[in-house]
Amino acid sequence: MGTIAHRFETGEQSSQKGHFRNLIMLARIDGMVAEEEKALLERISNRLGLTDEQVKDVKNDSNSYPMIPPVSREERYERFIQLVQMICVDGEIDPKEDILVHRYGIALGFTQERLDEKYPLILEKVKNGMDRNDILDSIL
User: Fold this and answer.
1) With contact defined as beta carbons under 8 Å apart, do 82 and 16 qualify?
2) Which residue, 17, 32, 50, 83, is the most exposed by fewest CB within 10 angstroms?
């Protein structure tokens, strides 16, 4: 079950890989990964500090990387924004993507009430091309 390095990685590394796995699952849910989704995955993997080898491992063995929600409120919102960006990047939101984003939001620790309040706002801001940091500033 994974490499020795996988067994001894930090909680933060595991959390980042779990988040990246969720992004991959969203990108794949409609049966194909669009070029825009691939580009966003690459940008986010770089932001998370994942190596090419780690990205390959997560793509090939996604079941080994469960979601580990971050502790801080800001990081949870940042991850949720990235999930919303992933479903919007190809210009179409598949109903399965919408359902999965809600599930991931709950797994990140948001209540259904909080999701009902914040998800539409974040979705609108992402669709309007607002920067992730600006979205964070507007919702925190």
Assistant:
1) no
2) 32
